[in-house]
Design a protein that fits this description.
Elements (H helix, E strand, L loop, with lengths): L1 H29 L5 H8 L3 H7 L3 H26 L2 H20 L8 H27 L9 H7 L10 H18 L10
Length: 193
């Protein structure tokens, strides 16, 4: 009986946590300097509730980062179900670039050992997602066989180095077209591993 009394609390706590993470994601997109108290207010929870889930700013940033990366990784199957593989590849990398730009806007909070550990732990799932996209593109004949997901991820890093304005996005689209041209099956690069 005591167990059933605790279940709704856990469910509410999970809903609160998820809601706080969503609000924090949106708030950090606006400003990397936004306070935790403002996030709590926007989430409609007391500061104590926010601090129970996330004892400090870094903990909240890491939780948002991990949640967003997992959502991005999980989106591959849906994208491939709804779009042609190469289009899904492009859209996925555009979404990744938008997120990395947001992450870079969080300033000093992202230079700690804990954050570097979080980035390192998410590298494998992101690389696996790139591999899934590349396999679908290869099966569709959109890219040449044998592309290494880690190499493609490294190359596509240009996308989060352009400005967040329309000029930067236009540049990213142009450079992506150049990169994708290098992936095409008819392209002979003469490069060997």
């Amino acid at each position: 009986m005591a167990e059933s009394r605790h279940e709704p609390v856990r469910s509410d706590a999970l809903k609160n946590r998820e809601h706080i993470l969503q609000v924090a994601h949106e708030a950090f997109a606006e400003s990397g300097a936004i306070s935790l108290n403002v996030i709590a207010k926007r989430a409609g929870v007391g500061a104590g509730t926010l601090y129970r889930h996330f004892p400090n700013r870094e903990t909240l940033i890491l939780a948002v980062y991990r949640r967003d990366v997992q959502r991005l990784v999980d989106s591959v199957g849906r994208l491939l179900a709804d779009r042609e593989p190469l289009d899904a590849f492009r859209l996925w990398f555009e979404t990744l670039a938008d997120y990395v730009r947001l992450k870079h806007g969080l300033g000093e909070a992202l230079h700690t050992a804990a954050v570097r550990d979080a980035v390192n732990e998410t590298y494998a799932p992101v690389t696996a997602a790139v591999g899934e996209l590349l396999r679908a593109c290869e099966e569709a004949g959109s890219v040449r066989p044998g592309l290494d997901p880690a190499d493609v991820l490294l190359l596509m890093g240009f996308m989060w180095r352009v400005g967040p304005d329309e000029a930067g996005r236009a540049q990213a689209r142009r450079v992506m077209a150049l990169a994708v041209e290098g992936f095409l099956p008819t392209r002979s690069t003469g490069l060997t591993a």
